[in-house]
Amino acid sequence: MSFVKLENVGKTYGSINVLKDLNLRVDKHEVVCLIGPSGCGKSTMLRCINGLESIQAGSIFVGDLEVSSPIVDINAVRRRVGMVFQHFNLFPHMTAIENVMVAQLRVLGRDKRAARDMAFELLSRVGLSKKIDKYPEALSGGEQQRVAIARTLAMSPQALLLDEITSALDPELVGEVLEIVRELANEGMTMLLATHEMSFAREVATRVCFVAEGGIYEEGPAEKILSNPDRPKTQAFLRRLVESHRL
Ligand SMILES: Nc1ncnc2c1ncn2[C@@H]1O[C@H](COP(=O)(O)OP(=O)(O)OP(=O)(O)O)[C@@H](O)[C@H]1O
Ligand SMILES: [Mg+2]
Q: pLDDT tens across 216-237, in order?
């Protein structure tokens, strides 16, 4: 049974038709990578799934919750699917551990001690047990992104939406963040991620979806899509990646 399901989704911004009759399913424990040129709609898709954007046609489900229903409990959706963004947006006036605690206190109503224990466990897991009392400005970009991942995991989500989470990082910091995603994948976390890191997509994805023309233009195993795609726009995209030495 699919955990995330988009059926015939249409999304417009004014007169721009970004998503057109989009269909996508993500099963439990799948790691699905969305790839495609800038502006093709990857972020829009992810934002629609956790209700940051409304849609004009079709339906979106997360488990048995219909995100696209006007009466959905959107906070329930967001507890179920956590999202991590390119720009980490940590609270600058809070330490790392406070950043990981705050939504646990305010959204989940956990008591302070439980929230702190959970935050410490998650920060340790992302390799930051020695930095829990640092403020974001004293952390590297990679460390800040790891705090942001811990913050999302603190909601105990059943799936993660990751939007270009390494794009804002210096190249030498990308690896430490991808390592966390790799571990989550190994533990069976369901993930849908937009990425420009093709080697990473090749390594972790159970399926790669090339996005074009407002929908999933071509999909399949990473090896197939990234080496030998069938359709012209996917082929052209790969050619450009090869020419710019990004594949
Ligand atoms: N809030 C908005 N208002 C109007 N147009 C928008 C808005 N957000 C996105 N768009 C447009 O929708 C299209 C898809 O944008 P989206 O951010 O989903 O692309 P993307 O695939 O994530 O690109 P990138 O790889 O650069 O992140 C683009 O044409 C973009 O200009
Ligand atoms: Mg994007």
A: 999 999 999 999 999 999 999 9
